[in-house]
Design brief:
Largest sheet: 2 strands, parallel
CATH class: Alpha Beta
Shape: globular
CATH superfamily: P-loop containing nucleotide triphosphate hydrolases
Oligomer: single chain
Number of helices: 3
CATH architecture: 3-Layer(aba) Sandwich
CATH topology: Rossmann fold
Length: 79
């Protein structure tokens, strides 16, 4: 699974987008691969000056973002 996710990150960057959308990029991975993919996404976004919008249930991964939003009771909240 981790190898496929790394390929997906590479495919996302190949056309030099300004925005990377990642929906549960670590959802089906074991903890070690989840950490690796999270680090890869954030480091690539920073290195290549991309905006990363990440949707996740993993608060450890979300906490690496500059801004964190949550949805509770149908309301969008900034943390």
């Amino acid at each position: 699974g981790g190898e496929r996710q790394r390929v997906a990150v590479a495919r996302a960057l190949i056309n030099d987008p300004k925005l990377i959308l990642a929906d549960e990029p670590t959802g089906n991975l074991d903890p070690a691969n989840a950490v690796m993919i999270g680090e890869l996404l954030f480091s690539m976004a920073e290195k290549y000056k991309k905006t990363l919008v990440l949707v996740t249930h993993d608060m450890a991964l979300a906490s690496k973002g500059d801004k964190i939003y949550s949805i509770k009771d149908g309301m969008l909240n900034e943390k």
